[in-house]
Amino acid sequence: MNAPWKSGMAGNRDPFAAYICDDAALDVLRPVVIELGWQPEKCNKGGLRNAVQSLSVSASPNILLVDLSESGDPLNDINGLAEVCEPGTVVIAIGQVNDVRLYRDLLASGIHDYLLKPLSAGQLRDALNQAQAVFTAPRNQDGDGVKHHISTAIIGTRGGVGASTLATSLAWIFSEDHKSPTALLDLDVHFGTGALTLDLEPGRGLTDAIDNPSRIDGLFIERAMIRANDNLSILSAEAPINSPLMTDGAAFVQLEEEFRQAFEMTVVDLPRNMLINFPHVLSDVNLVILMAEMTLASARDTIRILSWLKTNAAHAHSLVIANKVQSGIAEISKADFEASIERQIDFSIPYDAKAAANAAKLGQTFAQANRSSKASAVIRQIGERVMGASSDEFSKNETGKKSLLGSFDLKSLMAKKDKAQPTHEPAE
């Protein structure tokens, strides 16, 4: 069901009300409420159940803070709250469950934000100020003015296959050739090269977002992202390698949410380990580009990732790109590669070491530094596909041609590779 707080405007109702389970949270909340000019008496004892009972017989406030700590089924109970809330109410939930899937589902149900206990005054102040901004912002009626947004994730099937090279080039093409406001999110938090490729300092934006997800809003995005050109902004990091990544991934979800509001295009450079640890990053991605090379290991991992995508991100279309392709020099032929993954390779980018070195020397993306190269021409074709293809065009190669080998047979490909190479060992 659609939560009624998703649309409409509230009338002359109370500006704020809260339903909180414990005294400790109430003690933190009341001074913030007073500071914002609201009545502390509107901070009620009792959680979600009490909120539903009270609001079933009285008008809901403009901003509602509700505690889920005593709820056994938060999502179902939130639907009950939606039944008694009037249009225009901005709802902030608080709770003790630190689970990114719950966070994601709550946002999808229409909740504005979800805060974890124990609460802090700064955390509450930021959330309530953001809620006020949302409430007072102009609302589009019937979806008018909603921006079309394309989110693309680029994943390398192996390290060094060129996923980051393609990500930075596509982001630059979208921003320069198509003049589309574009966000580049480099999720290799310790070793990302997105900023380096663009000859920029990465800044602290991404690490700050990971450390403080509740701070992420439009203003944070504007301040934290590094501007590469008039239409391209990048968010990346160079986190100390003695500092492990300590996050449940909520920041990444919130960042993508804000990108949809601020940009027309999002390009996510997504390392394989981040895909495994934070699969929800693909929840709102339209297209996944798999970067591969013509090797046995890359064929194996292309199969594994495509299978994973069918199960975990079935909504997203996928493209398979073969990079660093050299005529007559490959572990696996194109025909065998396509047979093993049971679909066609969508694009093949030729190997051009000189062009890659030129881009690095100039501090520019590959496509920017090598406008006339054959490799750049293919990258631009990929960009055109992403910008202009319909869903049907994206999906026409999803099934591909049937495997010539039946199921993928690693031993068969190994035997083919060995047979093609002369042996230098003496015969027995």
From TrEMBL:
InterPro entries reported for this sequence: CheY-like_superfamily, P-loop_NTPase, ParA/MinD_ATPase
Nucleotide-binding among keywords: yes
Classification via Gene3D superfamilies: 3.40.50.2300, P-loop containing nucleotide triphosphate hydrolases
Keyword ATP-binding included in the entry's annotation: yes
Keywords of this entry: ATP-binding, Nucleotide-binding
Domain of life of the organism encoding this protein: Bacteria
Coiled coil: none
Protein name: Pilus assembly protein CpaE
Organism whose genome encodes this protein: Altererythrobacter litoralis
